[in-house]
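re: that chain from earlier
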Amino acid sequence: MKPNNTRWMTGNSPLHFRLLASFLSTFFKLLYHQLAWSYDWVAAIVSLGKWQNWIFTVIPFIEGPEVLEIGHGPGHLLLALSEAGIHIVGLDESPQMSRQAHHRILRKGINPLLTNGLAQFLPFPDSHFHQVVSTFPSEYIYDPSVLAEIYRILMPGGELLVLPVAWITGQKWYDRIAANLFRVTGQSPEAYTPDIVTEFTMPFQESGFIVSIEISETENSRLLLLHAVKQ
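^ sequence. v structure.
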């Protein structure tokens, strides 16, 4: 759960939705920085305990051997891939999250390869990584300068994997509350439509990637996975 993504908020959204989204945007920024110690608890609550499982759905698509995770958060995916023998490097702009990930991985006897930094200025050589992965990133992932940097550090034929959104599809009362919360906070669009697919894929196509979309159905949820391959 990254700081609030406002790309789904429009001027036509109800005023109370926009006010709540503004408040939650500030809260999420604190959650990713000063309140990082509570991140896993909050993510589990708002996703009905699904957050970590959603993140792990990208694992079958990651082969390496050289992988970069951008926006690694508390490091759950970094640890899982490291334990699977993948050589993975993590980058995050939050020092608090970097510390959490470092401690989590180190406790398992693995030397973490982490760096603080912005995705607009990736401190890696050209054509270095086979894959780059980012789960539930905020709006920075659509920034042309970020996509240009990712394109630069990927090998020809390398792949960027982005898990940008999840929909909670269960029909129980708590499922509906969680789904509305995700929509209000900008964590997901209201529905999966062809227009949404175009909005997701266009920035990557304009940056030179060959893009495909994959929809994954899990229990009471739907995930969208974007594959962007460097030509």
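The CA atoms of residues 115 and 198 lie 33 Å apart.
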